[in-house]
Amino acid sequence: MRRKRICANHRSRPARPRLTAGALGAPHGMFARAMLCALIVAMPVGCARKTIHIRDLPASQNTISREELEAKLLTNNAFITSIYAYVEGDIVTMQREAGGTEPKTRTGAENAEWSGTLTNGRFMASRSSKSPWMTRFVAEFPMLQATFSLLANGRNFWIRPPRPTAQLFKGTHDNTFARPEGWPTLRPQDLGVLLLCDDLFATEESERNVTYMETWPTFYVLHILRPQRKPEVIYSRIWVHRETLQIAYHQLFDADGSVVAEARLGGYKPMSVAGPKRWGRAPDETSTAEKSAYVEIPTEARIFWPKDKVALDIRLKHIRLNQGIEASVFDPPDESKAVVVEIPAYAAPPAPTGSP
């Protein structure tokens, strides 16, 4: 058995002294402990959290209440009593059946597919203290050498499609009923609601809508319900950017709960307005005092009527607010030289089946 050789020098090598409090003495040991603690505290720790103050967060991380958001939207529009703007834009229609070659037809007239640029357009809207918006949109459609116009005067409306014919649609808008199938569902009244948030205002206390809000990472979503209908159904939905508090997307629902019109809004322009504050949410919010305020107006909008498959892309130019619009602008059109097609206000109830 081989013996392990041990070096003599190794035997005589003294053991290394251990660094202990006893070896250094009490004062030196306390100093070593203090230095060790200081080094540990000074070392960077990967899991340490940085203190973040709420003012340092992006605006989209801040929250406001539903009442505050409604007040902001109402205040922005409460000072607007009239708007006049020149319009550039396009109209796009998709009236062909999927997979088909023939245009889709509706009761009363053929709706061929037409798309193109609108020129010399104007958008006008006006309202008094307790009435809904009166709106008029008119533009030329050079491709067919025709005029496209939308007119809403109270609950009555007129639509002149961009065709080289004398056809004129007319009817009465009643948002408590579903818009009838087989007829154009486009309503000029939609412009005042989508662009100017008319669904947040009420002309009578009994007509006030009920709202509730969802908070999403990027948007506040306001759901507006119709309390007059039982069971309650949704009337509109407004998507508001949390960072800018500007409306990005606005949807209108039919009385049966289906989407009937929607708008994507952008290009907001701040403008100064002066004049009396118009009708608010409740009768006690009426104010006739002269005031001034800064409001934000969307200058770009894509308005889409999904049931008609009609889209209107508009860009507002040279906007004038609260400068007055003559009442004659909203007079009904001359029907004597037109082929008038009357749209029913709502779908007729189904006929009873079987013998009585």
Looking at the overall shape, the CATH architecture is: Clam
> C-alpha Rg, in Å?
34 Å
Order of helices and strands: HHHHEEEEEEEEHEEEEEEEE
Strand order of the largest sheet: 9-10-11-12-13-14-15-1-4-5-6-7-8-16
Global geometry:
globular
Measured distance between first and last alpha carbons: 121 Å
CATH class category name:
Mainly Beta
Structural class by secondary-structure content: mainly beta
Number of helices: 5
**Helical amount:** 10-25%
Global mean pLDDT:
75
Key descriptive features of the protein:
356 residues; mainly beta; outer membrane lipoprotein receptor (LolB), chain A; 14-stranded mixed beta sheet; two-stranded antiparallel sheet; 5 helices; globular; disordered C terminus
Could you characterize the architecture of this molecule?
With 356 residues, this protein is mostly beta strands. 13% of the residues lie in helices and 38% in strands. The strands form two sheets. The protein has a 14-stranded mixed beta sheet with strand order 9-10-11-12-13-14-15-1-4-5-6-7-8-16. Strands 2-3 form a two-stranded antiparallel ribbon. The longest helix is centred in the first third of the chain and has 17 residues. The chain starts with 7 loop residues before the first helix and ends in a 13-residue tail after the last strand. The C terminus is likely disordered.
